[in-house]
Specification:
Among the domains are: 55 residues, FAD/NAD(P)-binding domain (3-Layer(bba) Sandwich), CATH 3.50.50; 65 residues, no CATH class. 26% of the residues lie in helices and 20% in strands. The chain has 236 residues and is of the alpha+beta class. The two termini are 25 Å apart.
């Protein structure tokens, strides 16, 4: 297995220590990592790299980031990098009245800590949503709105089935390995809505962890020439 990344490090949004831990963990799993390199073409089961090298494979997973959906009526001057709508400190779309954008489809450059926009993760979207709701209520009551400021609570990523990396409290506190996986599980459980969902998720994760069965549900219909009927294989 290969991982090709056009940047100088894996998990670009995370700390330098997370870069090292992720690289080390994936290498131990047998993954060959190629950095500062992009994929320029894929044909005839061949992956062509920007270096001119070729990797032969029948499986290619393309994960080149998020491109936002554009909408009619939004002027080109309001569209920024990644087709994200440019917003002001109140998440209002630049050049439009009464139109707001949050999450992956918005890019706000008024936050001094994030001059290139906030990371396209769940936390910025959640915090922007809460702030926008408060601002709309304030606006309806004739009160001033407050500028959005992102509070970085940290970033986490799972590596393999038993390891993860965590950068908590604006990357001041770094954890890796199995303890980081436990932190990831705990934080995600806490954010679920009710105890039934929490217990159900914990049970499913525990079964998947100890049985090494991710409980993927796939329906495979292979082509067959022996019979006009198609076989259906279901994995649950």
């Amino acid at each position: 297995m290969f991982i090709i990344d056009g940047g100088p490090a894996l998990l670009a949004e995370m700390s330098a220590q997370s870069h090292k831990d992720a690289y080390k963990a994936l290498s131990k799993l047998g993954v060959k990592i190629i950095l500062n390199t992009t994929v320029t073409d894929y044909y005839n089961d061949k992956v062509v790299l920007s270096t001119g090298d070729i990797i032969e494979t029948k499986s290619l997973i393309w994960a080149a980031g998020v491109i936002a959906k554009t909408f009619e009526g939004v002027p080109p001057a309001s569209i920024g990098r990644g087709r994200r709508m440019i917003t002001d400190q109140y998440t209002k779309v630049q050049g439009l009245d009464d139109v707001y954008a949050i999450g992956d489809i918005s890019i706000q450059k008024t936050d001094a800590a994030f001059p290139n926009g906030h990371p396209q993760l769940a936390q910025p979207a959640i915090q922007q949503g809460s702030t926008l709701a408060e601002n709309l209520i304030a606006l309806a009551n004739g009160k001033p709105m407050k500028a959005f400021k992102y509070v970085d609570k940290g970033t986490m990523a799972i590596i393999g089935s038993r390891k993860a990396v965590c950068d908590l409290f604006t990357s001041k506190f770094h954890v890796s390995g199995f303890p980081a996986l436990l932190i990831w599980l705990f934080i995600h459980l806490v954010q679920l809505i009710n105890y039934r969902n929490k217990l159900g998720a914990l049970l499913n994760w525990s079964i998947a962890y100890f049985t090494r069965d991710p409980s993927l549900r796939m329906i495979i219909r292979p082509e067959t020439t022996a019979s006009p009927e198609r076989a259906v294989l279901k994995q649950e």
